[in-house]
Amino acid sequence: MTSIHDLARETGVSTATVSRALRGLPRVSEETRAKVMDAALRLGYVPSPHAVGLASGGQTRTVAIVVLFVTRWFFATVVHGAEQVLRERGYDVLLYNIGGDPDARRRVLLTQLVTKRADALIVVGLGPTPEEVLWLSRHGMPVVTLGSRVPEWPSVRVDDDAVARTAVSHLLELGHRRIAYVGQLSDEGLDLATPRARLEGYRATLREAGVELDPSLELEGRFTLEGGHDAGEELMRRTDRPTAVFCASDEMAFGVLYAAREAGVRVPEELSVVGVDDHEMAHYVGLTTVRQPVLQQGRVAARQILQRLQGDDREYGHVNEHVELPTELVLRSSTAPPS
Amino acid sequence: MTSIHDLARETGVSTATVSRALRGLPRVSEETRAKVMDAALRLGYVPSPHAVGLASGGQTRTVAIVVLFVTRWFFATVVHGAEQVLRERGYDVLLYNIGGDPDARRRVLLTQLVTKRADALIVVGLGPTPEEVLWLSRHGMPVVTLGSRVPEWPSVRVDDDAVARTAVSHLLELGHRRIAYVGQLSDEGLDLATPRARLEGYRATLREAGVELDPSLELEGRFTLEGGHDAGEELMRRTDRPTAVFCASDEMAFGVLYAAREAGVRVPEELSVVGVDDHEMAHYVGLTTVRQPVLQQGRVAARQILQRLQGDDREYGHVNEHVELPTELVLRSSTAPPS
DNA sequence: CTGAAAGCGCTTACAG
DNA sequence: CTGAAAGCGCTTACAG
Lengths: 339, 339
What we know:
2 copies of one chain form a homodimer. The first copy, chain A, has helices at about 5-10, 15-20, 30-45, 50-55, 75-90, 100-110, 130-140, 160-175, 195-210, 225-235, 250-265, 280-285, 295-310, 315; strands spanning about 60-65, 90-95, 120-125, 145, 155, 180-185, 220, 245, 270-275, 290, 320-325, 330. By secondary structure, chain A is of the alpha/beta class. Chain A folds into 3 domains: about 5-45, lambda repressor-like DNA-binding domains (434 Repressor (Amino-terminal Domain)); about 60-155 and about 295-325, Rossmann fold (3-Layer(aba) Sandwich); about 160-290, Response regulator (Rossmann fold), CATH 3.40.50.2300. The longest helix of chain A is centred in the last third of the chain and has 17 residues, at about 295-310. Chains A, B: Keywords: DNA-binding, Transcription, Transcription regulation.
């Protein structure tokens, strides 16, 4: 591989001058610059990021994104949004998909990342533990969280409590009293802020409306289509079937809808279903849902990181430390008053 | 940040010994090793990847994956499979989502990657141009392609021609003669191998069955749900509606199914629909489809890269240069003989 | 088993 | 405008 020395030899100047010329620094004569650029092109010169990084203080121009499951619509969309903004600004994206494995989480967050392979980190969907906050802070890693919030770091999210309240209130207003919840009940050692907040929001809204909580109406849906379908089947089998279901994600809601159809339970006449996200498919299946801006959350998180890294408030305006994006109830044909 | 020098001073040995001790190299006394390890832990030592890379010949332990759209099920799943295998072996994944933008493609493939930020590259869904092959080869970048094939590099894929033949033959055998195609017709400057191969397969199968090709039956579906829906609507409006549709992806097929439902066209009585992928949702909507192993393609591509990078055939067995994974027709309720 | 020294490919004051 | 030289944080023969 051709190095800066080859260019120096080729053009008859010093490596220092080559370096300046290549990077467009001032105080290089146009003639010299042209000679150097030409040689670089001819010899197919490409700088070594390792050498550049070492010599100029360790920047990698890389941002790591840690997600739970790239294959879920929410996460894939967030990554898409963040990657786009970061790449525009010349940053590369290192993707870590921890896939619900607590070990992987530990390895990535507590070992891998601190290895200085990225300048900053976007954590999506995980509520960082105090240990993680301490460790990453100690190693000087700038972090923004997406979908959860800790006081130490900037964050982007929607108000998951409000999301649940919106959905459940809608069902209550329609006259439902037996309302099931399909979400994620067990954490499996991961700290997942979102499922917990939505479950709490569901419970609180019912309680405040004077509806007694029924633990048998809280089902595990694993935040997947299949999990939602399993939960739906379970619900359809019951003699005291609820009249409505609040699903903490659209993908789970789709599963419930399919289970209902298979069981011959009509939606919305016999069962109302509401989801969260406004997944691209929600429109087509007529799912009432609480829409959240997903792509935008990814973009905002990326901007917060860039601001932190480059400190240019001018370009992005003032980015709040804790950004909370609005959500909105989208009425479609999967909800109606109980018959 | 604490460096190898701090550890050397702290433990009273040379940096050379510290380096050996840290990396578990032989010829270090147990006592010394323990002292060094202890100091490293106490001082929170983390090696600088830049320094390591520079000193030991430029390896980054990073593999780049270039995809078209992370948000599409196929790509997200491939990334998931590849990332998992790579991370297990200690490699990080750099994700480039070029999003159908030819400029982004140029910038990433022809500029960014060659910058030595990754040891190797997995290209997903793009048919590399001769220029790209030449350029990346010249820069010594190991590449494997997924979903396309060039003679110069290993590849993993399914036989897209056979995929289309399977789907269309199924429809022909059911007795259909007017069979539409929904896929991607225009390339927009990207070289997409898959859409082209499926379209050609569709045409060839019809031709060989003696069915005259009707250009008005080839519709643009952009490989998205919405694109499929648009194409579906267009088809439903026609007076000479086809009796069957072959969609080059399940997501487009879902769109067609929704369009049919909205138009009151019954599936499969009045319209047969077959897709490609076996998307997780296909089962629930009863879509007949040609299943391809998606996760596995990602895993195999990762293994091919690792083999190339580490040259250990033992662990992975012999990995063929060009791997073609089998596909299979999955019969469900969206296809039937024309009425 | 351990150390001194060169070297990886750049950048960056400091002189001139 | 340009160059000599030190330095970034490691690894790696080479001696001992």
